């Protein structure tokens, strides 16, 4: 009887190719495009091998791997991670969670099935053939008629230079607010959330607060422990984010508040936590939030917000491949579909293109790739975000000028704005 293998991949192109290569090698293969359904099938009838993508709706591949290996009934299933999200941190996490093999997309079709076969046989999988790249060594104000107002409270990467050179763009780390006629949505809790919190308490307008955390790198949560509404009676704080396979959202948030300065006192706000997957949630009447897994080390979310006939998209840390993208490493195409037609997109544009060439596969984008992909996706306004903290204002001014030139030269029907603290944009 042929060895059973389950391929779990929501991309029909890659899923069908992987399945065909394994069938041609003599295996019995089942292709499943729904990770939640795949987990149910694996529990009901464990295959010998599960081949998992990372970036999938429902359960991402890392979480699926962790659940397979944590269940006594399925822990013997050998797990192969096949993904273009191949950062060193993700490779290490995959192994930590029990995966026996990590294959990077785009993979070598001549050795793919051989690598899986060697794993089944208990041998060291043959390395993939070298790719050609490897051989080479490779203030705009909100208008009177706007329905939404986006404000930037922090837009820098984690800084070793705090207290150093002042900047017109600011030095606070990631935090953006989106105000509707009756509510406020907050994205990330870098140091920028501290002045936002003081303003919320001073103004007293919003009591029911929604905070969406993209991930748990320090520059996206370092201000949460000093968020003033959390220590003020009468507030409700709804915190949403992804569970990491190794640590639940609740545990992470609890640890953050345990680090709060003693003089802030005890938590006073009502606290609600919501684990998010790649689904669409109506968090408030008429407000739909659609998280998606972003191309960045660790479990990282981007968010698409639809309300009042408008679309706001936020993805502060994510790598767009640009011309390096391939059919088997299709993050750019997938992202383009998700953000299609956004009225306002806030996206990682951290690097000069020259710097990006030496910093690829670290989870951040060249502003050039971001501008081109946003324009192709029909984005109306793009805010370049998550500026490298080593960049002076002169470098950021140069990025701004170059981005405007790209738009003009290509005839793109899109406005590009550099993020800076206190920037307000009406939608």
- The class by helix and strand makeup works out as alpha/beta
Q: How many DSSP E strands? A: 19
**Mean pLDDT score, rounded?**
90
Total number of helical segments?
12
Describe the main β-sheet briefly.
7 strands, mixed
What's the CATH superfamily of the largest domain, by name? Ribonuclease Z/Hydroxyacylglutathione hydrolase-like
CATH class membership of the largest domain: Alpha Beta
Strand order of the largest sheet: 11-10-9-8-7-6-19
Task: Supply the CATH architecture of the largest domain.
Answer: 4-Layer Sandwich
Distance between the termini: 61 Å
Taking pLDDT < 50 over at least 5 consecutive residues as the criterion, the unreliable ranges are 129-144
Rg from C-alpha positions?
22 Å
Q: Structurally, how many domains make up the residues?
A: 2
Précis, in short:
The protein has 427 residues and is an alpha/beta fold. It folds into 2 domains: 132 residues, Response regulator (Rossmann fold); 278 residues, Metallo-beta-lactamase, Chain A, CATH 3.60.15.10. It has 12 helices and 19 strands.
Describe the model.
- The protein is an alpha/beta fold.
- Helix content is 27%, strand content 23%.
- It has helices at 12-24, 35-44, 61-70, 88-96, 112-120, 132-135, 193-203, 249-258, 331-338, 353-356, 367-376, 393-410; strands spanning 4-8, 28-32, 49-52, 78-83, 101-104, 149-154, 175-179, 184-187, 208-212, 236-241, 270-275, 281-284, 287-293, 301-307, 310-315, 344-348, 381-385, 415-418, 424-426.
- The strands form three sheets. Strands 11-10-9-8-7-6-19 form a seven-stranded mixed sheet. Strands 12-13-14-15-16-17-18 form a seven-stranded mixed sheet, covered by helices on one side. A five-stranded parallel sheet has the order 2-1-3-4-5, sandwiched between helices.
- The radius of gyration is 22 Å and the shape is globular.
- The protein starts with a strand and ends with a strand.
- Mean pLDDT is 90; it is low at 129-144.
């Amino acid at each position: 009887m042929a060895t059973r293998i389950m391929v779990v991949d929501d991309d029909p192109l890659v899923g069908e190719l992987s399945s065909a290569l394994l069938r041609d090698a003599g295996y019995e293969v089942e292709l499943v495009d729904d990770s939640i359904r795949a987990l149910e099938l694996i529990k009901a009838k464990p295959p010998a091998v599960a081949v998992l993508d990372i970036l999938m709706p429902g359960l991402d591949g890392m979480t699926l791997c962790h659940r397979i290996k944590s269940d006594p009934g399925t822990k013997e299933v050998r797990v192969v991670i096949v993904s273009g999200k191949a950062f060193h941190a993700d490779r290490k996490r995959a192994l930590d969670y029990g995966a026996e093999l990590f294959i990077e997309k785009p993979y070598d079709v001549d050795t793919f099935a051989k690598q899986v076969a060697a794993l089944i046989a208990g041998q060291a999988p043959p390395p993939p053939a070298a790719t050609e790249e490897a051989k080479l060594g490779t203030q705009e104000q909100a208008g009177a008629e706007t329905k939404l107002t986006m404000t930037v409270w922090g837009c820098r990467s984690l800084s070793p230079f705090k207290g150093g050179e002042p900047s017109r763009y600011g030095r606070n780390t990631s935090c953006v607010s989106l105000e509707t006629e009756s509510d406020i949505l907050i994205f990330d809790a870098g140091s920028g959330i501290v002045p936002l919190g003081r303003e919320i308490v001073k103004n007293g307008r919003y009591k029911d607060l929604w905070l969406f955390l993209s991930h748990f790198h320090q520059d996206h949560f370092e201000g949460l422990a000093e968020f003033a509404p959390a220590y003020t009676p009468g507030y409700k704080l709804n915190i949403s984010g992804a569970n990491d396979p190794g640590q639940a959202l609740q545990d992470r948030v609890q640890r953050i508040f345990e680090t709060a300065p003693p003089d802030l006192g005890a938590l006073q706000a009502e606290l609600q936590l919501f684990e998010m997957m790649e689904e669409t949630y109506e968090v408030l009447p008429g407000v739909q939030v659609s998280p998606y897994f972003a191309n960045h080390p660790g479990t990282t979310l981007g968010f698409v917000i639809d309300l009042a006939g408008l679309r706001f998209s936020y993805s502060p840390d994510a790598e767009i491949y640009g011309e390096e993208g391939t059919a088997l490493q299709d993050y750019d195409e997938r992202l383009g579909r998700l953000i299609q037609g956004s009225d306002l997109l806030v996206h990682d544009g951290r690097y000069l293109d020259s710097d990006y060439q030496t910093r690829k596969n670290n989870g951040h984008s060249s502003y050039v790739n971001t501008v081109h992909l946003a324009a192709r996706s029909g984005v109306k306004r793009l805010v370049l975000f998550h500026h490298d903290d080593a960049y002076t204002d002169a470098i950021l001014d140069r990025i701004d000028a170059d981005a405007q030139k790209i738009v003009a030269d290509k005839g793109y029907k899109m406005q590009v704005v550099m993020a800076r603290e206190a920037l307000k944009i009406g939608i």
